[in-house]
Amino acid sequence: MNAKTMEGLVGARTNMNLMNTPMRVFREAERRGDTAAMERAMGYACDFADKAEEYKTEADKGMEEDAKEAREKAKTELKKAIKKRREEREKLEEKILENKNAKNNTADTGTDIIEVSEEGRILLKDNTDLDNKSSQEIKTEAVKEPVMYTKTGKLVHAEQSTGISAAV
User: I need a labelling partner for 150 at 20 to 30 A (CA). Which of 97, 142, 159, 161 fits?
Assistant: First the structure.
């Protein structure tokens, strides 16, 4: 908050509080019918009200300056953000061009580059160990006797039959 704003707000509030005393004297003089005391009290009250008004205008000027500073700060932050976005966009465009050039280079040679992670290397090693088994062992594991299940879920060994029966 600007110093003028603070000074204006404090001064206006203080003068408004100080105005309460002459107004109380004015009311008491009015009840008694003392017009001279009423005029003096009203003069003091008007002086305090005028000072409060001056401080109010000072606070308004201070708030205008605060608003102006805030607008300028927002403009500079916006310019910084725009500059940052522009730089990020340029970097992204450079990366895109680099990737495009890298793809063009690999297309010319007819080869692709593959990067395999540690997990992939382990899986590759395990799979190559399986390939070393004889093909006979794999076939025997895969071929089993055909089985059938009844309605109740019991296992029944299927016999080679060509007939099909269906119950509806």
Answer: 142
